[in-house]
Design a protein that fits this description.
This protein has helices spanning 48-65, 86-96, and strands at 4-6, 21-24, 27-33, 73-80, 103-108, 118-125. It is an alpha+beta fold. The chain has one domain (4-125): RutC-like (60s Ribosomal Protein L30, Chain: A, 2-Layer Sandwich).
Length: 126
């Protein structure tokens, strides 16, 4: 299967040698998003809630560039530097995804890029 990159100006540019997402057939693989402001490339300031919302907003922008929405997600992985924030992620995730919710894993991470507290990636089926 051929693959093609997906890019959105509404999400932060990649900070390494990777694409925001890759489409292969009906699947779209969204790269991990941290709470970067797309306009500045800097981490958002404010609460952990603000950070999680920025992550999902960034993911939604890339999903839209692929022709989909977060409700097309079949798999989401969330990385947290502090697993005590798990309940907050659950609450906010319910604002961005409709039932049936995607399959998901949540992992503790010692550190994330740029010192972020949260990162998430997804697989969409379009």
């Amino acid at each position: 299967m051929k693959k093609s990159p997906v890019h959105s100006e509404q999400a932060p540019a990649a900070i390494g040698p990777y694409s925001q997402a890759i489409r292969s057939g009906e699947l779209v693989f969204l790269s991990g998003q941290i709470p970067l402001d797309p306009a500045t490339g800097e981490l958002v300031t404010g609460s952990f809630d603000d950070a999680v919302r920025r992550v999902f907003d960034n993911m939604a922008a890339v999903a839209a560039a692929a022709g989909g929405t977060l409700n097309d997600a079949v798999r989401v992985t969330v990385y947290l530097t502090d697993l005590s924030n798990f309940a907050t992620v659950n609450e906010i995730m319910a604002e961005y995804f409709d039932e049936p919710y995607p399959a998901r894993a949540a992992l503790g991470a010692a550190a994330l890029p740029k010192g972020a507290a949260v990162e998430a990636d997804a697989i969409l089926s379009l």
